## 1
Amino acid sequence: MSESPFGHRPRVSVQAEVAPAPTVDASAIDYLKQVYALLAASLLVAVAAGFVGMHTPFAFEHPIVLLLLELGAFFLALKVKNTPTLFLFTGISGFAIGPIIAIYIGRGLSGAVGQAVFLTAAIFVGMTFYAMTTRRNLSMLGTFLFGGLVILLVGSLLNLFFHSSAVTFAISAAGAVIFSLYIAWETQMLKENPWAVTPQEAALSMYLNVINLFLSLLRLLGVLGSDD
């Protein structure tokens, strides 16, 4: 027995306190490889479509039409769970995002676009690594994140009428936090429950996390870089 500053307690060896590192079985590894391959391909499709959208007048002139097409493609991808419907949605999504990127570049905020891309990639890698290696159970985050997402959507809709920079900043900051945590939460769920959903469904969900994280960071950096 040895005395510690916090009272009498037995000395415990460091080796006894270290829990074994979490492992990933072969089936989960194969599943995750498929998910991330589809995610990478989806992002490439979105980037290519976004570049086209940046230079297409239709994308600037008909945002409501694009929104309806995007929603239709999203629900189709949820119903018909295959790779073509996944790429159809990500292509329309990227095409719709193209004008947003063009507007930021036109306002002299191309640096914010580059920073948002870098931060999104860094956060994605960091959160994925954390979720794959942590011994902490992240399942309890699900309810909290869903509630935060609902509040985020309501706040965004209300801000369409108020156009407040302060509210935009708050919503963007909250969105960056929520979608960062969603990446970690969903990664752990996919690791621990492989094949519970198809790789296409998982890639679609993760794509939405990545894109919404990017857009949240872009708006946040845009507010910080604005002269208004």
Note: Residues 1-19 have pLDDT under 50 and may be disordered.
## 2
Amino acid sequence: MYRNRSQPAALPRAPRGDTLASMIDWSGIDAVFLDMDGTLLDLHFDNHFWREHVPRRYARSKGIGLEAATAELLARYRDLEGTLEWYCLDHWSRELGLDIALLKEEVDHLIRVHPHVMEFLEAVRAGGRRTALVTNAHQKALRLKLERTRLGGHFDAVVCAHDLGLPKEDPAFWDRLQRLEPFDRTRTLFVDDSPAVLRSARRYGFRWLLAVSRPDSRGPAKAAAGFPAIRDFSEIMPAAGTG
């Protein structure tokens, strides 16, 4: 699902003389968990899809104006924001009378990987660290995006919140993830563009947390809500030999 746009905001800075790369002790990290939409992939695809493409198709199917359709849909999105239904393509297909998975394929040319993602994944795995994709995306959206980007081969595990029955925003999600994909919360780096998800992970006890400051390449920078933030993955690239 898309993320609400934020006004440009000052981003957290590392202490003077330091960089994010120097703040991360790669010798203390055994695993890297990564969000997908907005973190590895440009959120422009999802923002365009839910704010522009779906309203156009919905307006046409209901015989109403685009402005009215957009207002109705944005309100309905807000009502479920942060829940598993918010991310569920099947839910929105039933609610809107549209084949949402098929509509995504109509604009799948907009699916893009953020800069330096592939190099980062290769460097992390070269260092011997376990790498997992941990996403709220619905299984159908996940399948489409992995097919279009070929990201899937870069992970030791791919975890879909819909398979666990809870979104990452829910504190109980992490216990379910722990049973499926055991990890040491003090030695796992987790990167996500959602402050709500990062707060949930922080409550669970993750030591290493990073936000993404520009999840949508065509949108403004986002406030990181007290978390250190990266503009792209070149800022935290592990050096060779840091395994």
Note: The CA atoms of residues 82 and 92 lie 14 Å apart.
## 3
Amino acid sequence: MTRILIVEDEQDIASVLRDYLRHDGYDTEHLADGQQALERIQADPPDLTLLDVMLPGLDGLGVLRGARACTQAPVIMLTARAEEIDRLIGLELGADDYICKPFSPREVVARVRAVLRRTAANAPHASTQGPLVLDETEWNASLHGLPMQLTRREFRLLQALARHPGRIFSRGQLLELAYELVDDVTERAIDSHIKNLRRKLGAASPDHDWIRSVYGIGFSLEAPAR
């Protein structure tokens, strides 16, 4: 059964959403706290998350940022703040859709169905950059067909770089994109993980430097020219 996590601190709204989604055949779980929701997603990602933007403690955008470091399962944001900047920030972090309050529960169910259909049809089992293959379901990476023994954090860092090849990311941006909780990681740790990734990439591809350093700015992934 498809599992839906509802992250909403207004109990009345959460109860209505649970009733409508259960009636439509979904298995639902409700949490009202952002930090608890992020920990739940990291431990056992649901098939889809309905995520309120305004939450006590860790807000919805913080939950979304942390969730995207460990899962690509769809997230629909629920918000009473319809300003364009919120919409753009959420979508850039990886939200799949937005629903503005007040809303019809039937509309939410319809949007859930639509997002699940779309993501199921388009969900990649692996992403590639030339000979570099990242299996996002098994957390495995290979280069020229050779498996790379990456730690979970190294995989997330390489994954963040590979999603936008050629784009230069600052250390701060990589902290947000590649790690669940940035308060237990320093920017200096990024340099250490980049060094390890370079060594492991170089072992399988000694003729190409996959990660480019831009002095004073950050790093980018550079696939070899075909």
Note: The radius of gyration is 19 Å.
